[in-house]
Amino acid sequence: MAFFCRGMLSRSVRTRRAFTLVELLVVIAIIGILVGLLLPAVQAAREAARRMSCQNNMKQLGLAMHNYEGTFKSFPPSTITLGGAAAQPWSGQSFLLPFLEGDNTFRLIDFSIGYHTAGNKANFPPNGVATIKVPVLICPSDPNDRARLDANGVPEHYPLSYGLNVGQYLIYNPVNRADGGAAFGPNLRSRVGGFSDGLSNTIGMAEVKAFTPRVHDATLPANAPLTPDAVSPSINGGAWSETSGHTEWVCGRAIHTGFTTTFPPNTRVPHIVNGRTFDIDVSSSREGRDQTSTTYAVITSRSYHTGVVNTLMMDGSVQSISSNIELPIWRALGTRAGGEANTFYQ
Predict the structure, then answer these.
(1) Do 107 and 120 form a contact (C-beta atoms < 8 A)?
(2) Which of 162, 174, 191, 278 has the highest CB neighbour count under 10 A?
(3) For residues 292 and 86, what is the distance between their CA atoms, to the nearest angstrom?
(4) What is the pLDDT of residues 82-91, one digit of tens each?
């Protein structure tokens, strides 16, 4: 009898060690459901961390901007235009390098010549400072954190995710030296006292997407298109690129390092090329290309953060602004002396 009980116990133990096929399927189904429930939460947590990191980048840029102002008693220009088709005007972002832990790089740059000239390339072999990544200029949510390659597959530029506010549509008229009335502009060295709207009510920088499809050196009307759908029909000529907008952090042209407030953040501006529809930026003659052609542009602030763009106000604060912001308010935030003080906060 004892032997029988031990045998039964042994078989019972062996039986309990195994799972039936049904039990395994149930367990797998439960795990799948849990993963399905947890994955969106994990992704949301990761995006929240990336968004916070993006805001920290902008805070560093704000500190750099004010340290520059404290040193030179003005904010930097978006670029310094010298004229000539071969000119390579430097960006306002490049002027901030000494205040972004980039002093060693800054000291090696000869700003009197272009970034792709032999003198500057020699100091940054093999392809110059334009190919260097400046980490604080890249949003961690932007999937295009990579160098732009030339026709031979060699790095020639590095992109950025934060553009300077250079106007609503007009950026620069070299004949009368009128700028776009924004925080930054070509050859503009704005002072704190010039922001009659208030530093906290004026956008300094906002997010842009690297490798944005763009048209530049187009002929554009003097008046801004009223709707996004009206942009494409207004373009006459110009150079088309599917992927090269906002890919040159060193370049002082707004098509690469700026944005305009023509339309609210994340507005889609459609343009059809070879049967495909692209969301584009467009500018007329690029700043500094000559000393007679006015630069107009529709360069939209865009972000990979759902429903918002992060913006750096001129007082150094960072705001997440909804894509649904009313256009008059967005444009008011884009002017430094437009008489719309406190518009955003009322």
Answers:
(1) no
(2) 162
(3) 15
(4) 765 457 999 9
